[in-house]
Amino acid sequence: MPRPIVATVDLAALASNLTIVRRHAPKTCVWSVVKANGYGHGLNAVWKGLQQTDGFALLDLNEAVVLREKGWRGPILLLEGFFQQADLEEIDCYRLTTAVHSDWQ
Q: pTM value?
């Protein structure tokens, strides 16, 4: 039988950690890499603690759209790029930046 595993996201700790990073590296841009729906905790929960970040790097186009609709106006980088040419319209509409991994992109 699998062990019950619980992880709790402490939003105040996320925000505090970001503040500490900024204090130690004041001239550095700090981006938050959030993958797998906030590592299973939900992007909404995680982004609230990281609103002072300089940008978000995400894997999923849908998560980027959600972040924009929540009111994030800063830069968003799609680390995986896009998978269909049809995605480009949404990428442009939501002002996203995308990585390019192959010639067809």
A: 0.85
Give CA–CA dist 5/32, Å, rounded: 25
* Cα diameter, the chain: 49
Torsion sign across C-alpha atoms 84, 88, 89, 93: positive
Closest listed residue to residue 55, CA positions, set 70, 71, 43, 73: 73
**Number of domains observed in the structure of the chain:** 1
Q: What is the CATH number of the domain that holds 35?
A: 3.20.20.10
pLDDT along the chain (105 residues), means of 10: 78 92 94 82 82 94 94 96 92 96 79
Q: What is the 3-state secondary structure (H, E, C) of 61-97?
A: HHHHHHHHHCCCCCCEEECCCCCCCCHHHHHHHCCCE
Return the structure tokens found at 94.
Answer: 């939501």
CA distance 46 to 10: 9
Query: In the sheet where 76-78 sits, what is the strand order?
Result: 31-34, 55-58, 76-78, 97-98
